[in-house]
Design brief:
Helix content: 40-55%
Low-confidence stretches: 1-5
Strand content: 25-35%
Number of helices: 5
Number of strands: 5
Radius of gyration: 17 Å
Distance between the termini: 37 Å
Mean pLDDT: 80
Length: 162
C-alpha cells in the first residue's frame, strides 16, 4: 500500500482516509466487481456502538465484504470482533439470495502460526498484510518463493481431492 503515501506513524483513521482518498484505485486493485457501500458502518448492539471500517459488496460473489483496518500485528481478539460484525451483517444487512458475508482484516504484520491455530484459512475471515515500506530484496524473494510453494501445495491437494 505504498501508493497511499503514509509516513512511518499514522492511525487507523489515517489509513482509512488514505484508502478512501484513493478509493477508485483501491477498488480496482481488489477487482472490478467491488462496490463501495459504507465507511464506518455504524450499528448498535445491546446498547453499544460498533463501527465496521469499510463495507463493500462484491457483485460476482453476491456477498457483503467487510474490511477491518488494524495497526501493528494481528491480534487474536480481532477474530471475535470481526465474527460479531459478520453475524450482524448476516442477520440485518444480507439480502435474500446473497451469500454469507466475508471479511478481510488488514494488519501491518501477521503470524502464520496464529492464523493457522485460529483456523482463519477455513472460515469467512481472511488476514491481509499491508506494507508501509518495501522489505529488503532477500526478504521479498523469500516471501515470493514461499508463496509459490504454498500455491503448488494447494494445487496438489486439490488434484488429490478430485
Amino acid at each position: 500500500m505504498d501508493f497511499l503515501g503514509l509516513k512511518d506513524t499514522y492511525s487507523e483513521k489515517d489509513l482509512e482516509n488514505a484508502i478512501l482518498a484513493e478509493i477508485e484505485h483501491f477498488i480496482l486493485e481488489m477487482g472490478s466487481d467491488f462496490a463501495f457501500l459504507a465507511r464506518q458502518k455504524h450499528f448498535i448492539l445491546d446498547g453499544r456502538d460498533y463501527y465496521i471500517d469499510l463495507l463493500f459488496y462484491h457483485r460476482t460473489l453476491r456477498r457483503l465484504v467487510a474490511i477491518e483496518l488494524k495497526l501493528g500485528e494481528f491480534e487474536p481478539e480481532y477474530k471475535g470482533q470481526v465474527e460479531l460484525y459478520l453475524r450482524w451483517l448476516s442477520k440485518y444487512e444480507k439480502a435474500e439470495g446473497e451469500e454469507e458475508p466475508i471479511a478481510l482484516i488488514l494488519c501491518a504484520e501477521k503470524s502464520q502460526q496464529t492464523i493457522e491455530l485460529l483456523e482463519l484459512d477455513k472460515g469467512n475471515i481472511r488476514i491481509g498484510q499491508y506494507l508501509t515500506k518495501m522489505p529488503p530484496k532477500d526478504v521479498l524473494e523469500q516471501k515470493l518463493m514461499q508463496a509459490i510453494e504454498n500455491a503448488k501445495e494447494q494445487i496438489e491437494r486439490k488434484e488429490l481431492d478430485v
